[in-house]
Records
---
Amino acid sequence: MKKRDFIKSSLLSGVGLFGFRQAMGASVPEITKSASLKHWVWESPNILEHEDVLKAKYARFYEAGIRGVFFESDSEKHFKMAKSAGLETHRWIWTMNRNEEELLKSHPDWFAVSRNGQSCATHPPYVNYYRWLCPSKPEVLEYLKKQVATTLDKDYIDGIHLDYVRYCDVILPVNLWKNYGIEQTRELPEYDFCYCETCRERYKAENGIDPLDIEFPDQSLSWRKFRYDRITDIVNALAEVAHQKKKTITAAVFPTPEVARRIVRQDWTNWNLDGVCPMIYHGFYKEQVSWIGDAVAEGVHFLCDRFPLYAGLFLPDFDSDDQLQQGIKTALKNGASGIVLFGQVDENILKVFESTLAGIELK
């Protein structure tokens, strides 16, 4: 199952942070000159592609302004051909969502447990590949650290890119509810994680109450923070591994800090990253292209210059070349340090991307 076959959601709408800043009289930043930006693509390498094809492909990426690739699988051929074209090569991994058969058989106790007592190992929520690890377990952290260290030991890999680095979606986008025959106007127990013994005991030791005994767990600020911190602990430990090896670490995250915390307990503005790639997929949230700028502005605001924000754009969400140009421009105008493209990056997309960057450079 490829990345984002099952896409996440935002309920953030309305005027947004960008509109708020305008209303308060705050200045709107100018678009950063293209020479100081860094742009990326998410890529699932086809191991059957011939080297001549790859050489031309990655050279064209570079020519169009792309400077890095997040590869979903490890293909030394792809990585080396991309590097020869001048591109950074990063290995994109699934972090907390791990559907490996061997892991499910050998360590079913590592998997997250819902509020109604069902383990992801045996009762995956929503779709069969949703098998979420519990971030509170020391064994899980050690497993992930080893995975990252082994990956980064390869000399053709420049960095690690974390995906699914969160809890299961407790609320889906409203336009997906019909697909699963559910109405998530509140947090339902079968999608609320994690209530395993490790999490319950640790929370109780810190707060004096079992989370299962909280009357309204969806309203408990300390229980929310407990889970934010568990994911943050995982990310920062993996960042330490990457930095010890003098390599880069980035992450694909939910589109805004507020949405990420509320929907998947993901507090990405407090992570020790070298860059973050919010997946600002406006079509899945039933938002207009202009909302991309709102989401970028919120993320940049709360990051306070800790590390760059690269705006992730989902190419099938754009109905025309003009819309794609608008999406790129509004992301950069609101402070994105670059764009990440997900989807079929063909010659037309590259031409649109190239011409948009050239137009920005002339301003």
---
Amino acid sequence: MIGWIKPFEKYSKPLLMAISVGLVAVIGVVDWLTGFEISFFVFYLVPVALAVWFVGDVFGIFISIFSVAAWVAGDVSAGAKYSRPFVPVWNAVIAVVFLFVVVAILTRLRKLHKELEERVRQRTVAMTNEMQERRRLEKELLGISEREQRRIGHDLHDSLCQHLTGTALAGQVLGERLAEKSLPEAAAAIHLVELVEEAIDLTRTLARGLHPTELEGEGFMDGFRELAANITERFQISCKFECSEAVRINAPAGAIHLYRIAQESITNAIKHGKASQMIIRLDKENDLVRLMISDDGVGLPENARQGQGMGLRIMAYRASMIGASFSIESLPRRGTRVLCTLPLGNNPPSETHATKSQTAIG
């Protein structure tokens, strides 16, 4: 019944009161025209239900009494004959009691319905607030992680690299002095300097990964080009960067999140996919920037297929933070392809929009 009377919610109370009274009158007229042998009493439940549900139990009682009066009056005027005078009175009392019971049941049902709607509303508000708070904390944690990576990158470049450079210079001076004295330890000192210089190069590579060059504007493509070169040098694999035309992103958040998605994708391809060749590709189409990372590895691990990979969830979340779509799929023969598409010119999405970002893992 609740679903049947749902369309009447848009009407005002005075209009619903008029409709209820009008329905009783119409049913009474039809009942009178069809004669007393055919009962239309059950149809009076419709105006009673409307009156109780949308107006109130008091008006429902009034419509119940009015309905019984119309029903009895219709039968009597149609020529109904009773063996005793109290029979129509008894029928009317029974009908009133029955409709009063219906009014009581509908009143209770309406109360329970309103309580349920209120609980659902409160629960929805609580869940919305909880989701917003969780997303705020996730965003804050990502921000803290980004700041810590930048700080560590600065420390590696400005402190550790400088210290290692000083150590290499000291070792070089020591090697020259040992060579002047024709001591056999001179070769060991020179080898030690070479090891320190390799450590300097490795530290600088780590620092650039933790704190990439400025990614806004012209530096966006340079950052990915440098990332491909560092991956090739560090892991001794083929990592190429391709870009058909100049791509610029002026929003710092969009640039850094795309960069981190590429980093995470490459790490997964090397660690889990055992890839030996990778391609980082940037394309611009109308107002869209498309980042694609493909590899020749073994494909998606089982936990990734089930949506359990932490790295995949982080990439998808980063994409949602900037309003980008994210997908990852296995290639037909072997390998994996990660695709992230970012609309240009968009401000960072709101919390509601972020939750609607579509993520596909297949």
---
Amino acid sequence: MGTASGSPQQVRVSSGGIELAGDHWPAASNSKGSVLLLHGGGQRRHSWRRTGEWLAEAGWSVWSFDARGHGESGRSPDGDYSISKLVDDAAAIVDVIGQAPVLVGASMGGMTSLIAEGERGPLARALVLVDIVARIESEGSDKIQAFMHSAPNGFATLEDASDAIAAYNPHRPRPKSLDGLRKNLVQREDGRWHWHWDPRVLQRGSEPELEIRYERAKSAARNITVPTLLVRGGHSDIVSDAGLQEMRELIPHAQSVEVGSAGHMIAGDDNDVFTSELLQFIESTPRPQ
């Protein structure tokens, strides 16, 4: 077993014939319960590292997985990275955890969490949606897609990748070390650095399909009964005031908080404030009966 302040235990879960790679931080003391962290599109489980360590130190058993097609998790043979498959994966992970976790999802992981709980629930002890709502802003979504499409041939150096990230997130201070990038990129035989996910993840649906996803997310939100926290970045271009208000109407009991210094990538932009708000919320959730 790993320790809360050190390296987590590596775990594997099978879902629909695909092996999902994950990390588990056991609780530093008697466990208060489990937390499952689901990352956004194009990210990896390592984006939750500091949050995982902090929550484990506070007495929570924490799990984080690479989504299918990302990082060390398996690639879909037929390129199916639909939200339905991601929901299947989340349900398979919860089965392995063996108890209802606090389900924390950012962006793609948040949409997965929302639909999983709304359609398959009760799965979770509580739900935390990180900069995601039923109707996302197309301008912000298009910006993310443009960034993910921007380097089909990879980068010559890690410095070039760092420059691209800085251009996408100009408000975020540049890291002093490039070591973190080594977890999000892989160096291929030609020496170039490529993002560590299947390019087929980028296959976008048509506008009618996106509208169906919105209706599906809205329907799922109406079914949410567990304690819920909506977290928005103060500089988010994904979650608008109108989108947040709609979610409050769909989930009337939901709490909301804004991380003023953060954009869409809240945990990466201001991890300390985010994790502090997250911990305060989950500490208030009742234990499952």
